[in-house]
Amino acid sequence: MGFADVAALFPPGTAPAAGSAHERYVAQRLAEVGRWGTDTLVDRVRRHAAVIPDRPAFIAAPAPGKTSGNASGEVSGEDGDRISWRQYDELSDRLAVLLLRSAVPGGGGLARGERVGVLLPDGVAVHVAYLAALKAGVVVVGIGPRAGRQELRHLLTVGGATALISHAEHRGTPVGELVDGLPLQSRLVLPHRLTDADWPEPTRDDRRLLESRALGLGEIHLLNGTSGTTGMPKCVAHNQNRWMYYHELAVEAGALTPDDVFLTLIPAPYGFAQWTANFTPTLLGSPTVVMPRFSAAGALELIERERVTVVCCVSTQFIMMLNSDPGRYDLSSLRCMFTGGEAVPYERAAEFERRTGAQVLQFFGSNETGALSRTRTTDTVERRLRTAGRVIDEMHVRLLAEDGADVTATGGPGQAACAGPATCLGYFDDPEANERLFTPDGWMLTGDICTVDEDGYLHVVDRKSDFIIRGGKNVSAAAVEEQVGTHPAVAMVAAVAVPDPTYGERVCAVVVLRPGAAVDLDGLRAHLAGRGVSPENWPERLEIVDELPRGSGGKVAKAELRTRLRTR
Length: 568
Prior knowledge:
The protein is of the alpha/beta class. Among the domains are: 37-245, Rossmann fold (3-Layer(aba) Sandwich), CATH 3.40.50; 471-567, GMP Synthetase, Chain A, domain 3, CATH 3.30.300.30.
């Protein structure tokens, strides 16, 4: 695959401009297809269905207020219990056939390469839908389970979706009302219990058609939204090949085996969840535990009940688990936790290791870039918790100064950029965004300011967009959060800028307190002074809240916080 194949991946009018940095980049990624194996995800599921048919593929947490336990071993979807590899394969076949047939309510079948929106909680059904789309040769437009009306409509529109798979309601609102007026040709409404789905058995002709339509390793299989904190999300284009490479990195980093049991707490559409739920466990043949709705206590209960060995979550989630008294649960099966996508708070990560006995690991990257660096089980505690890991050679990481000069040789600081096989295929149908994403010579920009030490370990200084500029001085929001989070009264913290007529911006710490605890601004600043924190990293305003708003990807929604503060 090469330049000639680039345009074929994109619908008419959406392909990268000829000769653009984006087109050259996609051609490089296509040239790597098959390097990490020729099996697709569909191939691997069919193999497991034949070899280990009764082993669990997905295990769903019970919905709130319900209990699990199904003596017959039947699938029970979002209401708990488990789905075997054989059931996963069979159910996705049946749903794939519905996508091909005129039996889809309200319209005809989908042509190969069309896009279908998937709006489902993070239970069993969403994974069945993703696999069905791969088999039917259609591209998923993944929509997070916390998406609001504007985000939902935006992603369906930008992704050019012509069909939608969902439940009848989304967050208490009929889905029909949410998508009213959009040019959707068909909607497929899934029951909450997969055993209630009346999907016909595929015929021999259906199966032959599925075999000919399944998406290949290099083709776009997923468009998902960025989980940034500002503005409407962009649609990021993914192919399976990037996750095959990512899988190799993950297996080596975490010493993963088919005997592992994964608990993935990130919603299915996001890049982090792609390798931790859709790909790596499937490629290994390992069970994946999922939660339709995250709760810290519920996650701890699942680790104990299912003997989870690998948990995958963002920092906010593992901190919430720490705040839920993990000592009340038997977590002896847990051996590692993967986190990433943001700076890892050292003291809370160290506390997680002390209290659970599990090693904290991370990949540094984003939905777009994948992994630039990683920590591994063989790294020391200091390397694992105080760095973003060793730079991955095949990702060709560079550090770029503000003027674009390459400062990699001196270790930075500079904006990290990369060009390697873990990256996405760029933004879908957004040439202006792609122009900002790539340097003219074809490196993908991260938006993160980093340094690399003499041993090749990457250190994240901050996101370019997450500086608080006080009197012309850049204050790292991550640095403020790291230090404020060490106060014994603080359960969660987000540092944001508030306007100031003299300094332009001042530092505000928005804090969730531990139960029964109290703190004021003077006491917090005294605590930071006692730790030797530079005064420039002290908050100048303190806001106590019951909870921090979070975006679809689980990260703190700082744009919403800033808006709240300004309206006061």
